[in-house]
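Handoff note, outgoing to incoming analyst
You'll be picking up this chain. Sequence as last confirmed:
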Amino acid sequence: MNSKQVIVMKKFASLRTGKYCAQAAHASMGALLSIGKLDGYGDNLIIPLHNPFVKEWLTGAFKKVTLYVETEDELLAVYEAAKKSNLPVSLIKDSGLTEFNGVPTITAVGIGPANASDIDAITGNLKLF
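Most recent structure output, in case you need it:
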C-alpha cells in the first residue's frame, strides 16, 4: 500500500517562513480531521481506521509532500478536484490578523491521507515547495 498526504501551498511574494509552516500544519490537520466524526455525545472525535490508507498513514511514517501553486484559482481548482474525487481535503483560509493586511486569504489545501496514486492524479503536475 502507498498512503500519503499532500499539502499544496499558494506562493506569496513575501510571507514569513513561520506563517507558511502554520498554514501547512492547518492544512494537514484539517484534512485528517475531515475524516473524523464526533461520537453521539459530541465529546470524542473518532477517526475511522477501516480505510486501509488512513490506517497505514496514522500507524506509519505520516508521509507528506508539500507542493505549490502560484494563484488562488489554481489552489481552488486543486481543492475542488480533491472534493470531487471524494478524498479527505481541507481548504485553509487565514484570518488575516497577522499577515495579509487584515484581509482573509486562502493559503493552502491539505489532501489525504489517501492512496498516493489518487492524490497524484490531482497534484502530480505541481512542483515541490
